[in-house]
Automatic annotation (TrEMBL):
It comes from the Bacteria. Residues 292-418 form the ABC3 transporter permease C-terminal domain. PANTHER family: ABC-TYPE MACROLIDE FAMILY EXPORT SYSTEM PERMEASE COMPONENT 2, MEMBRANE COMPONENT OF TRANSPORTER-RELATED. Signal peptide: none annotated. The chain crosses the membrane at residues 21-41, 287-307, 346-368, 388-410. It is found in: Cell membrane. One of its GO terms (molecular function) is transmembrane transporter activity. This is ABC3 transporter permease protein domain-containing protein. One of its GO terms (cellular component) is plasma membrane. It comes from Parabacteroides distasonis CL09T03C24. Keywords: Cell membrane, Membrane, Transmembrane, Transmembrane helix. It is a multi-pass membrane protein. The keyword Cell membrane applies. InterPro entries: ABC3_permease_C, MacB_PCD, Macrolide_Exporter_MacB.
Length: 429
């Protein structure tokens, strides 16, 4: 039976090639717009290297320090390193806690300065390398003892290594960062600007630059982001409660200032939704924005295509009347129309998925723009792991089914309810 439906659907497509082409192209554009939104959402929220543990991550970034006597005055920025050490390093509920100082542009050069260029430098602690899953081409990262000793070692990206020496075999060689020599100890695969928390061209121990950290000072705000890796998402509440208690203890010891983190630490979605340090991020609102956009992009083309389906149904009223006269049930007629329309929708869906991939690749800098992208020198590239995710294909298929049901469901339902005489006379009520 279903083979007959497919043959009939194919015959209908060839019967009016212009109308079929318009329908398929309209479906393709609708699926393309929906899938672009889905792919962008997936790339921002799913686990991708080196941020392989987004579903278990918590973040502390936007913070504010206010006077105890006058809380209307606020100093807003990231965290001071001592706050990370005092409030977050001791978290017993967390698996790992690390910190990093992003957004620093420095000049990278070989020793004789025959090659030099600007690069994005990220200063980190040792735990950073256990929280993010970098792909090491050679060497290994620096450890806790090396960080504490202030070792002048650097981890560089693949592209930086090639620009400096024309190869990735550079472990043991020297790179100058703003005229300060460092020994390259490891090379990692390039990191896209999409991985905001792990991104960098060169990674250095934060102890190699005294201007960045505040050992022994009373500052509460600084330039560090804190990254917390939980054993599972079930530990988020415990981590949150423990962090709040630690911050409360810190504030009690302060003579003039109070530290507030606006409801943090945040989950990955919370970090995306956060706007400032004054209020908690509204994750529900962020998700609803994406849901509403997808629904609008789904409903508008569905309404337009239902008109095309309805016009086709008018031409087939006599056929439907004959089938009903010979005992075809409403469910059989409804199934046939939906099944026939599904072929058209799937053809449009495949074309739309291709369009969506092309759009994301060509417009990645715009569609996948991040806060880091506005400051960084690097690029927002996507790889096969990000693009060809089984979930994306599943979402595309579900979008096709939904569009098929919305565009063909009402015309098919009306046709199945037609009286035999009315259908034979080709009168639509």
């Amino acid at each position: 039976m279903y083979k007959i439906y497919l043959k009939q659907a194919w015959a209908l497509l060839k019967e009016n090639k212009l109308l079929s082409g318009v329908s398929i192209f309209g479906t393709a554009l609708a699926i393309c717009m929906i899938m672009v939104i889905v792919i962008v959402w997936q790339m921002r929220t799913a686990n991708y290297s080196p941020e392989d543990y987004r579903d278990r991550m918590m973040y502390v970034s936007d913070t504010r320090a206010s006077y105890k006597e006058n809380e209307s005055y606020n100093d807003c920025y990231f965290l001071a390193s001592r706050v990370v050490k005092d409030c977050f390093y001791p978290l017993r509920s967390a698996e790992k806690v690390g910190m990093a100082y992003h957004g620093v542009q420095r000049l990278a050069a070989v020793a004789d300065h025959t090659v030099e260029f600007k690069c994005d430098v990220t200063f980190t602690d040792a735990a950073f390398w256990n929280i993010f899953n970098f792909r090491f081409l050679s060497g290994k990262p620096y450890g806790e003892e090396e960080v504490q000793s202030g070792i002048m070692d650097a981890v560089v990206s693949e592209s930086v290594a090639r620009r400096l020496y024309g190869t990735t075999e550079v472990v043991g060689r020297t790179v100058e960062i703003s005229y300060v020599p460092y020994t390259i100890r490891a090379v990692v695969r390039d990191v896209s600007l999409l991985a905001e928390s792990a991104y960098g061209d060169v990674w250095l121990p934060y102890t190699t630059d005294n201007s960045l950290y505040d050992n022994g000072s009373d500052r509460l705000v600084g330039g560090f982001r804190c990254y917390i890796l939980a054993s599972s998402s079930a530990d988020f509440d415990a981590i949150h409660s423990e962090a709040e208690a630690n911050i409360a203890r810190l504030n009690e010891s302060q003579s003039t200032h109070l530290l507030k983190i606006g409801g943090g630490p945040d989950t990955h979605l919370g970090d995306l939704a956060r706007e400032d340090a004054f209020s908690e991020p509204n994750v529900r609102e962020l998700v609803m924005k994406y849901v509403i956009i997808v629904l609008v992009l789904l409903l508008i083309p569905a309404i337009n295509m239902s008109g095309i389906t309805q016009s086709r149904m008018r031409k087939r009223m006599a056929e439907i009347g004959v089938r009903k006269a010979f005992g075809a049930t409403r469910s059989e007629l409804l199934t046939q129309v939906l099944y026939e329309n599904l072929l058209q929708t799937l053809l449009g869906g495949v074309l739309g998925l291709f369009f969506s991939y092309a759009s994301v690749l060509l417009l990645s800098d715009w569609l996948l723009d991040t806060g880091t992208a506005s400051m960084g020198i690097g690029r927002t590239f996507v790889n096969a792991e990000m693009m060809f995710n089984p979930l994306i294909f599943l979402y595309a298929f579900l979008a096709c089914l939904a569009l098929n049901l919305l565009s063909a469901g009402i015309p098919a339902w009306r046709a199945s309810r037609m009286r035999i005489i009315s259908a034979l006379n080709e009168n639509v009520h």
